[in-house]
Amino acid sequence: MIALRSARLVLDAPREADIDAVLRACQDPEILRWIPLPHPYTRESAEFFVRSYGPHGLASGSYTVWALRPSVTSLLVGVMEVRKDEAPGSASIGCWLTPDARGAGYMREALARVVQHAFDPAGLALTRLRWESLIGNGTSRRLAESAGFAFDPAAEHTVDFLGEPMPAEVGVLDSAGRAGGD
Known about the structure:
Layout (H helix, E strand, L loop, with lengths): L3 E2 L3 E4 L6 H7 L3 H6 L8 H18 L2 E8 L7 E7 L5 E8 L8 H14 L8 E7 L3 H9 L3 E2 L5 E5 L2 E11 L8
């Protein structure tokens, strides 16, 4: 896995020492409200995420999971995933941030770096990124818009969220940096 760096962050693979931090973060009501995690989220869930889920994505080439770490502490403060879509050259982004790290601009910084890597021909060489979030998650939408994603009301649809139908919205960004793509 290629580790990415930004001004204040190192983005690398989740590791064994992150299990407790993942477990604590995935108990947060705000994360559970917007992200379809196993419920209840147990230590075994966190172990699976670190030991199996992330490594499987790399091995299969279907997704990449980065742990977000401030370069001064190296403690996990969030996660970002880029998952290839069925359309060639297209992928979706998902993320979460620990409660203590919110408001510091870490996720915006990480997203900018991951978008850059995703579109770099020497990186993931993608041509299109999608951002899907449940309607009402204004924080997620503002984050995506800060990176240039454009949301089209016509793309709103219903997703299965832990067995319940929920309205979702989709933002798109293409490799030329033009919101919307094709």
